[in-house]
């Protein structure tokens, strides 16, 4: 029988969840990353290429504009928990917000609404589209998250941190810093000195583009 990276067969998913909850109290961030590996997907450093928490959250939808291949990584609430843990390891704003804790399940709709409003507004901003309605939608989505009572306990809830991250992006960054990766269409901040960064992650999307160009050239070159 096929087993996942942690040795659990597909039918044992509920048992693996019990193991994750048992160990989360010991090493919460590491366990969330391991949980992602067990389910066949990991929140690696590449998944946090956006340069801001709000952009990394927006980028949790893969192939957003491909109706047949689109993947929403947050369809599973457990994946949101894993994202929060991995953001503590790889997120660009981890020092700003301190330890992130998962958003509560009852706050999920507001959190997803914030994610979608963030993507729409900043994608339009990169394309220099004049869409004040999208800014208004984003501000309302931020308010919908922040007006809810914050849960008790240590750490910053993921949805609250994402709302503050989006607010920071509204007041900045400098023009030309916010970009869309031409390979994967993720949003990212170009923090290079001369704003020359093209890809969200040169090691991933940049190399894929190079590989495609090399393949095309090899096909076009005449054979001896």
What labels describe this entry?
mainly alpha, Jann2411-like fold, two-stranded antiparallel ribbon, two-stranded parallel ribbon, 9 helices, 51% helix, 6% strand, disordered N terminus, Zinc finger CGNR domain-containing protein
Number of domains: 1
> What is the averaged pLDDT score?
81
- Give the strand tally: 6
CATH structural class: Mainly Alpha
- Sketch the topology as an H/E string, one letter per element: HHHEEHHEHHEHEEH
Structural class: mainly alpha
Stretches where pLDDT falls below 50 for ≥5 residues?
1-35
User: What's the overall geometry?
Assistant: globular
Using the 3D structure, state the CATH architecture: Orthogonal Bundle
Largest sheet: 2 strands, antiparallel
Estimate the helix proportion, in percent.
40-55%
Radius of gyration: 19 Å
Spatial order of strands in the largest sheet:
1-2
CATH level 3 topology? Jann2411-like fold
Sheet-strand content, in percent, reads: 5-15%
Determine the number of helices (DSSP H or I, runs of at least 4 residues): 9
> CA-to-CA gap between the ends?
49 Å
Concise account of the structure shown:
The chain is mainly alpha-helical and 224 residues long. The strands form 3 sheets. A two-stranded antiparallel ribbon has the order 1-2. A two-stranded parallel sheet has the order 3-4.
Describe this structure in words.
It is a single chain. Helices cover 51% and strands 6% of the residues. By secondary structure, the chain is mainly alpha-helical. The chain has a single domain, classed as Jann2411-like fold, CATH 1.10.3300. The protein has a two-stranded antiparallel ribbon with strand order 1-2. It has a two-stranded parallel sheet with strand order 3-4. α1 (13-24) packs antiparallel against α2 (28-38), α6 packs antiparallel against α7 and α7 (132-146) runs antiparallel to α8. It starts with 12 loop residues before the first helix and ends with a helix. 33% of the residues are buried.
């Amino acid at each position: 029988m096929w087993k996942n990276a942690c040795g659990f067969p597909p039918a044992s998913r509920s048992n693996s969840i019990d193991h994750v909850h048992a160990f989360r109290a010991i090493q919460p961030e590491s366990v969330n990353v391991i949980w992602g590996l067990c389910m066949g997907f990991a929140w690696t450093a590449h998944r946090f290429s956006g340069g801001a928490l709000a952009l990394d959250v927006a980028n949790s939808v893969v192939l957003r504009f491909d109706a047949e291949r689109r993947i929403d990584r947050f369809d599973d609430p457990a994946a949101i928990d894993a994202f929060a843990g991995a953001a503590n390891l790889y997120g660009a704003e981890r020092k700003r917000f301190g330890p992130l804790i998962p958003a509560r399940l009852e706050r999920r709709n507001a959190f997803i609404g914030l994610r979608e409003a963030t993507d729409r507004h900043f994608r339009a901003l990169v394309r220099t589209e004049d869409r004040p309605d999208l800014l208004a939608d984003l501000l309302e989505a931020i308010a919908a998250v922040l007006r809810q009572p914050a849960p008790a306990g240590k750490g910053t809830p993921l949805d609250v941190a994402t709302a503050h991250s989006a607010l920071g992006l509204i007041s900045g960054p400098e023009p030309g810093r916010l970009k869309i990766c031409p390979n994967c269409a993720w949003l990212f901040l170009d923090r290079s000195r001369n704003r020359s960064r093209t890809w969200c992650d040169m090691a991933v999307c940049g190399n894929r583009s190079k590989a495609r160009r090399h393949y095309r050239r090899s096909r076009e070159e005449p054979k001896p």
